[in-house]
Amino acid sequence: MSENWTWICATDELLPGEMKTAFDEITGAGIVVVNLDGTLYALEDRCSHEEFELSAGSVDPDEGSIECVLHGARFDLRDGRALCAPAYEPVPKFPVKTEHGGVWARDDRG
């Protein structure tokens, strides 16, 4: 498991309802971090239906989801599970932390 955290942005650059992206330099995975009412969630920035960036889509703060613009698949920001067709598989959820004035995440898959 990688212990290398990826810098996402300064904490004051990620306000509620906003998202930021980065790439894990170790695994090459895209990461999208979303501020949902003050709580940060990190998912792989890739739709499980058809490899497209989730960050190109929109966040629904009431539902706590992110929607892929390609075909409308939605994913729960809290756990990555698919909420509707055409996606059936979840997207990986990554750990996220705030430290030293910044937001950090990492791809912690084996």
- The CA-CA distance between the termini, in Å, is 5 Å
SSE run = EEEEEEEEEE
Relative strand content: 35-45%
Radius of gyration: 13 Å
| CATH fold-level assignment | Rieske Iron-sulfur Protein
CATH class: Mainly Beta
**CATH superfamily annotation:** Rieske [2Fe-2S] iron-sulphur domain
**Helical percentage:** under 10%
Point out poorly predicted stretches.
none
**Average pLDDT taken over every residue:** 95
Known CATH architecture: 3-layer Sandwich
SS content category:
mainly beta
Helix and strand topology:
Blueprint: E1 6-10, E2 19-23, E3 30-36, E4 39-44, E5 58-60, E6 65-67, E7 74-76, E8 93-94, E9 96-99, E10 102-105
Features:
Non-heme iron oxygenase ferredoxin subunit; about 110 residues; three-stranded antiparallel beta sheet; Rieske Iron-sulfur Protein; single chain; globular; mainly beta; four-stranded antiparallel beta sheet; metal ion binding; 2Fe-2S
What do you see in this structure?
The chain is mainly β. Helices cover 0% and strands 38% of the residues. It is built from no helices and 10 strands. A 4-stranded antiparallel β-sheet has the order 2-3-4-8, with no helix packed on it. A 3-stranded antiparallel β-sheet has the order 1-10-9, with no helix packed on it. Strand 9 (96-99) and strand 10 form a beta hairpin. 35% of the residues are buried. The mean pLDDT is 95.
